[in-house]
Amino acid sequence: MTTKFFGEPVRRREDARLIIGQGRYLDDIGSGAYAAAFVRSPYAHARVLDIDVSAAMDVEGLLAIYTYEDLTGPLAEPLPVLIPHPQLTAPRTGYPLVKDVAQHVGEPIVMVVATDRYIAEDAAGLIEISYEELPVVVGVDAAEAAEHTVHDDVPDNIAARHHQETGDVEAALAASAHTFSFTQYFERSASMPMEGKGVHARWDDADSSLRVYSSTQASTSVRAAIAAKLELSMEKVEVIAPDVGGGFGVKIVHPWPEELLVPMAARRLGHEVKWTEDRREHFISSAHERQQRQEITVGYDDDGRITALDVLVWHDNGAYTPYGIIVPINTATQLCGPYDIPVYRARVNSVYTNTVIVTPYRGAGRPQGTFAMERTMDRIAQERGIDRALVRERNLIQPDQFPYDWGLTFQDGRPLIYDSGDYPAMMAKLKVLVDWDGFAARRAEAEARGKLLGIGMAPYVEGTGPGPYEGAHVQVLGSGKVLVSTGLTSQGQGHETVFAQLAAAELGVPLEDVVVTTGDTRRFGYAVGTFASRAAVVSGNAVALAARGVKEKALRIAAEVLEADPADLEIDEGLVQVKGTPGASIPLRTVAVLSNPLRYAFDEAARQATQFSGPGDDSKPPVAVGDAPGLEHTDYYSPLRSTFASGAHAVVVEIDPATWEIAIEQYAVVHDCGTIINPMIVEGQVHGGVAQGVGGALYERMAYDRDGQLTNASFMDFLMPYSSEVPDVDIDHQSTPSPLNELGIKGAGEAGVIPGSAAIASAIEDAVGRRIAAMPISPTELYDLVRSDAERVTNSSPHDSGAMA
Amino acid sequence: MTEVRTERSISVVVNGVPREATVPVRWLLSDALRHEFGLTGTHVGCEHGVCGSCTVLVDGQPTRSCLVLAVQVDGREVTTVEGLSRSDHQGGQVLHPIQEAFRECHALQCGFCTPGFLTTIAAGLDARDPSVEITEEEVDELVGGNLCRCTGYANIKKACRHAAATMRDEAAR
């Protein structure tokens, strides 16, 4: 592979259309489509007694009203449990439309189709539904108490008891020099992409086939789900993810009810149908994440080295478990981060509540795990009077311990083995970047101004690039254009650019000759999806392998023409040439033409490949046995297991003791995602992740009241950060390539968000000297905290001697 | 009882082109732009005026097109992201410096909020004296009213500075 393009901050290919308003997002498709709207449950837990549609029937422009009674065959069955797990002993999923009992505010009960969205909503507003309200369960504490149940047949509200351990934690705790236990809370937030979900379906009656556009992270699996639920053969369904306005996890869940109902309506009505989610719908019917109560017990020695760690997590999974227990597994298995912990036990009880489902949001259980681990580290440092950085350094996995086998099972069902990393170097870089050791002077300076300054840090390890696989198809056309396609989808990560970089580097062609297609089942049918920071790792390696296959074939064909050994050939700027012999060359586009022996000269280039165009070898068939026409290759990359990226964040906060406003003065990131394909894009991912981490730490929460009403279901009330809330980010890179894949890549997508709450909590605690035991935290909550009898804490400075330091 | 008029005809200059349309009176400006005029570059992110994705220029002023009824722009000029490019004075069109800067500085990821940022910032940059170096306060003001969930804003602010510098160079020529 040439190094050109690989590792360069190449400008994005996708931007040319997006900066002039020529993107094609879901709602930009199908201007003549009928519009769907939904009547959703206004109650968190209620039995549907009667649905009266009579008043709606007179609305001019109404086309159809569907309730559960109108669903047939597999559509009338519960939605799939996408990721079954033996410890998910009581999985429950909803129906596309509520059959009997609505389990959260926002669950769809009736679908209305009309000539436009206004009319559909007019009709929806006239549908009268009578309900019997049922007792509501909100929050993990109420779920655990199980005074009321979400699902009648799950009396303890527990969907799953996920349990993993590396040894006898109780014995190890008993043998530890010191132990303590504590409980803390982490609140709900949500992916909240700027574009909500949406589905457009077009039924072709003559062909009995369906084309569906969905704002999804998993078009191939949406296709399979639609085929199964609508009882269509796979070849009659195509699903395309167009430009998608952000995902961050919420669009990996599928099939959403609307992804089945909109195609169903299109087929029944024989007309295009579209549904575009509005913002309130997104708040009350699309997935949330993150609420947990964590009960932690740790054992450690005089130096602050951990000897045993035991965590019991109560995890709120909302009303249903379509995505299995991926989030609980991530919390359980990623909690220990970069630390060498001899004996560890994680138990996660995943519980039902009458709230929106909980499925991965960028980070997917890791921010909570990191919060648990890092708050534990701070407490150990405080108990032992050791600098917080030092206690972390003493517990780090050392470079010579890789591969580091935890003896646990990761979210991909494979062993949790850290493949590579250099955590001591990472922490050393972070301390320099944030000037950890010089902080005392900054604090003193702030105090002189009447402000409280605090510093915190939090490293993490993130399992990225899980399998099972991704594939890619690379084809060189007679025009010289190089087509690259992969089934994995894009939501703004710049895949068109990085996959083009990889293909161009492998093939030796100009970047502008490469055209990348993602998430279109017409072009590539086998894929898993975009989640878990896996696109660059899994599809990236597949693209490289497919391009290499094309190159091999190109060199073989060119070698015949040039009468040279393929090993002596190279491709540069789209020209296949004999190394060191200028002039002995053939354009790659000509090789593409020659690769396909022709009878018909449909254009000028094709003439070269027709049957009378030149001397052939009469002893062999035009296409050799085992060969295929065309200059193309399909290949797959299936990782042995996940690769583990890492990083560390440090934060300085300044708090105004008059208002208790929390301002981030400095945010420092050291980031290691192995080999980098495009540093500009990686830094963009880190910036965006940090902003979401800051949002989750200081502003965002899903404010459910006791009745299960989401009281802040709008951008006025759910406080996503504007630029005024996001600090400048200082980034330092470290590159520890993964030994698991040839390109050495680790994932980068989620990293930025993971340690935000942990690091910011640490900094606030350091500033105010009071225990922070729940995140997010607002100025009002901080004000209340410092006036309460909350535990007082003192951190040691790096220059204090500390126990055994 | 007076008859309720549910539709009205409007005349609007959209991206420099006079347009006539008959639209339901309850339609938002964003509806008319997207569904009547086919200008889907204006994106609707929240429908309550908070995110700014749908920002267009009405008589040159940044305006949330989800908070304005289509009939309210009767007789006015509307500029959308599709209309930000400018004449190159040689018969062609060139992108606004902020559009170029967004690409140059990686100021967009998913691109959904981008049109709202571009219209807002373009109007702000066009209204200031290009020969004066832009301040951080100005940048914060230009960027501060719109939501982006992807970029963390750092590169959007960088793009503002980059575009302002380009316009300063142009002004100096």
How is the secondary structure organized here?
The complex is a heterodimer of chains A (805) and B (173).
Chain A: H1 15-18, E1 34-40, E2 46-52, E3 62-66, E4 101-102, E5 108-114, H2 117-125, E6 128-133, H3 140-145, E7 158-165, H4 169-174, E8 178-186, E9 198-204, E10 209-214, H5 219-229, E11 237-240, H6 257-269, E12 273-276, H7 279-285, E13 292-300, E14 306-316, H8 326-334, E15 344-351, H9 366-384, H10 388-395, E16 404-409, E17 415-418, H11 423-434, H12 439-448, E18 452-464, E19 470-476, E20 482-486, H13 495-507, E21 514-518, H14 535-562, E22 569-572, E23 575-578, E24 585-587, H15 588-594, E25 631-637, E26 643-655, E27 662-672, H16 679-698, E28 729-733, H17 756-768, E29 774-775, H18 779-787
Parallel strand pairs in A: 1-12, 8-29, 10-11, 14-15, 20-21, 27-28
Antiparallel strand pairs in A: 1-5, 2-4, 2-6, 3-5, 7-15, 8-13, 9-10, 9-12, 13-14, 16-17, 18-26, 19-20, 19-25, 22-23, 23-24, 26-27
Helix pairs in contact in A: 8-9, 9-10, 9-17, 13-14, 16-17
Chain B: E1 7-14, E2 17-24, H1 29-36, E3 55-58, E4 61-64, E5 77-79, E6 86-87, E7 93-94, H2 97-104, H3 114-127, H4 136-143, H5 154-172
Parallel strand pairs in B: 1-5
Antiparallel strand pairs in B: 1-2, 3-4, 3-5, 6-7
Helix pairs in contact in B: 2-3, 2-5, 4-5
Put the structure in a nutshell.
The complex is a heterodimer of chains A (805) and B (173). By secondary structure, chain A is an alpha+beta fold.
Key descriptive features of the protein:
heterodimer, A: 805 residues, alpha+beta, Aldehyde Oxidoreductase, domain 4, seven-stranded mixed beta sheet, six-stranded mixed beta sheet, 29 strands, globular, B: 173 residues, 2 domains
